[in-house]
Amino acid sequence: MRRMNKRSKKTIECSTPPRTATESFALEIHLSARDSQIILAAAENPPKPNAKLKRAAARFNRMFAKKS
User: Fold this and answer.
1) C-alpha gyration radius of the chain
2) Per-domain residue ranges for the chain?
3) Taking the complete model, does pTM exceed 0.85, yes or no?
4) Do 43 and 25 contact (CB within 8 A), yes or no?
5) Residue-by-residue DSSP string for 15-65
6) Which pLDDT score, from 0 to 100, does residue 61 have?
7) For range 51-57, the mean pLDDT
8) For FRET with 29, which of 38, 45, 57, 63 sits at 20 to 30 Å CA-CA?
9) How far is it, in rounded angstroms, from Cα 58 to Cα 18?
10) CA-to-CA distance for 55 and 58, rounded, in angstroms?
11) Distance between CA 12 and CA 43 in Å, rounded?
12) Which residues fall within 8 angstroms of residue 3, CB to CB, at 6 or more apart?
């Protein structure tokens, strides 16, 4: 599998395609330590669903609760 590195514009050869997000980030050797730490922290703590999504989900659930 071939991937482009954004910073140095080199293709990185990977023998196997990355399975999870953290594995693919670990494969990216060209990232600095600070960048990889930020990415790993983001991978471990996914963003919380915002209020608009929560309201939409509640509306969706109410719609289907009435029918059944």
Assistant:
1) 19
2) 2-67
3) no
4) yes
5) SS---SHHHHHHH-TTS-HHHHHHHHHHHHSPPPP-HHHHHHHHHHHHHHH
6) 82
7) 81
8) 45
9) 35
10) 5
11) 22
12) 11, 12, 14
Which amino acid makes up residue 14?
C
Q: Which tokens sit at 52?
A: 């608009």
Length of the chain: 68
Distance CA 49, CA 68 (A): 27
Contacts of 18 (CB under 8 A, 6+ apart): 1, 24, 27
- The tokens describing 50, both together, are 């915002």
Amino acid at 35: D
Q: Tokens in use for 28?
A: 């990216």
What is the Cα–Cα distance from 24 to 44, expressed in whole angstroms?
A: 14
